[in-house]
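Problem 3 from the worked examples.
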Amino acid sequence: MKMKRRWAKGGQVLTAAAFIGVVATTPAKAAQTDFIAMPGVFMNITFGERWNFGFGLDLHATFVFKTSEDDKFATSGVGLYAQATWLIASNTARYSAGLHGGYRPQDNPLERDFEVGWVWQGAVCDQPAGHGIQIGFSTFVLFGDVALRLTLIDGGDGWMPEGHLALGTRRQSRLGLPRWEGSEGRPQRDGQTALMGRVFVRGCRLKRRDLSKATTRAAIGVQWAEAARAEAASIPAFVALARDLQTAQAPADLVRRALVAVADEVRHAQVSAKIARRYLGRPLAVEVPNLHPATSDETSVHLLSRLAVESWRDGCLGEGIEAVRAAERGKITKSRYVRASLQTIAREEATHAELAWDVLIWATQKGGTTALDAVAEAVAESAARAGVAPVGGYRVPGDLDGTAKARIAEAVRVEAVGRWRRTLGTG
């Protein structure tokens, strides 16, 4: 009886502590809330008075809060979980359900998730079936779960403590994958949809024993893989620009510069993929999207208006922003190769932005009032988006934080608006 009361009191303390940990993960102020329902599979090793082995399924339903960049946590969330485990050696099942909550710090992609809930386990040897409590801690490494749980089950003959080590996998973590604000490149568009290719990565292994360092390297690699994907999507976009310029009977120099930009984007994609492979430690291939069919513009004026608006949005602003961001990233990275690559990308993205300015000026001169009105609307739209707080996300080492990215975007926008007004003679 003393043992039973001791475990009962200990179980109450552990339950209270775990519940406090779950509630404490809820942020006081959230910039954005998502809902994620993420199933997973795992294998379970039970240790204590009896050893056991089993397989299980689980489901975590989480309200995820993505906070602003000045918050200590990049992401946090709370929700419910349910698990079912088949214990092979005992030919019985264990079911559990309860609350979970976790967070991912700004400076580390490893999430921390806590669980507290009810558990029922079937009879194991001479221990009858019974109910109890379960607390646990887990983290998500790349595409795998590592969890350590403790159960206290009362089968009528006293509390039976057991420890459980679970190793599993799911498509992404309970809090979603780390997010990065902004993207490189100038993709083709089908309406408002950016046409992007795919990234193929072979293998899934960690070469370092330190999981934190290995996961950080993987996060850097994933970011560069996304950059390679964006740069590859820019290749057919500049081919399409050259095609549309030729259709609009633009000066040959503009068409030539658009084709030079194609070669630049090929190099950017290759360099980004090479850096991604270095950090991921595995082969990687990036798909180049197919060339989208030419847009059926009603008249030549509509074609010129579209070219002017796309040049303002994707070139004067988009590539102008990425040129400055790449230059700033080159100043803080520790790798000489990455720094040299970023400096080259920054310089060539700046030439792409200048090409966009020249296309914009030529298209509005040829398109007249219709093209000028379309650009005026796009300029007003960009002004309406100014000052929007960036959504928080994990900051990859060597990258800019959301505040710095937003500051650069606003500075480039203000300078671009001033330049456009000077071009029109109204500034």
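Problem 4, a separate protein:
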Amino acid sequence: MGHNLGEIIYVNYLGAEGIPFADFEVIARPIAVVDMRQMYDRLARLSRDGVADAEFKGDFIFIKGDDHKVVEMLHEKSAFIGPEGEIMRLNVNEHLNIMRALFYKAFFRYAEKRGFRPFRGRKGDKRKKLLPLNISSESLTKQELFVMINNDLALYRGLYIMLEIFDDGSAVLWVDLYSPIVKLSEQRPLSPREAKMLGLKDIYTSFIPSPSKRFELTKKLLSILCTDSRLNIEFSDRYSISFSCNLSTIKTT
């Protein structure tokens, strides 16, 4: 699709420094899962605590962090894990989903420390959602990132994020504005269906920003998430990936 001459295009991604996924190592251990739900609950706890970021696929569990703690937490109750771990370098062709899953675990731990709460996208949507639910509404209101609708409903400005990894190991983090209506008593965004049933479609529509305003609000959210215009995501094994937080615009000629 073409663009009009002189049109400003908003570039909504953060570029990773270097080629961070070209040398992306994990500890791989064979695993036989006993209780899938319990296993994922425990892996989520280990990641939140910064002990280990781990993801399961097939007959192996892939770990960045303290693999012995993973074995200790899971063994016999949630899964049987092999006694020896092997250092493995993941590659994009075979392990793309594992790489993404491990990154999101590290990213969410970082974002939660900044006052954001992650939410899963709808089925089939590869984007993740972040809302600044643990930042004071007064501070957010001043930045136009929060609008009270009634005693139990408010519009929040948050972020969609999606990691894209290329064949050579380079990566970008796509970011875009996410603007749901949140039920405050339950601290969760309403689904589009719920908002429609509550007669909030017109209210929601009135808060849809122009492209330039959308870009401005996205930058405000990134300024909360980033430090000195950088987003540095550290895994539990201390490996880190840095992104530049400077969004840019392109003027067509």
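Solution to problem 4. The first helix runs from residue 36 to 48. The radius of gyration is 20 Å.
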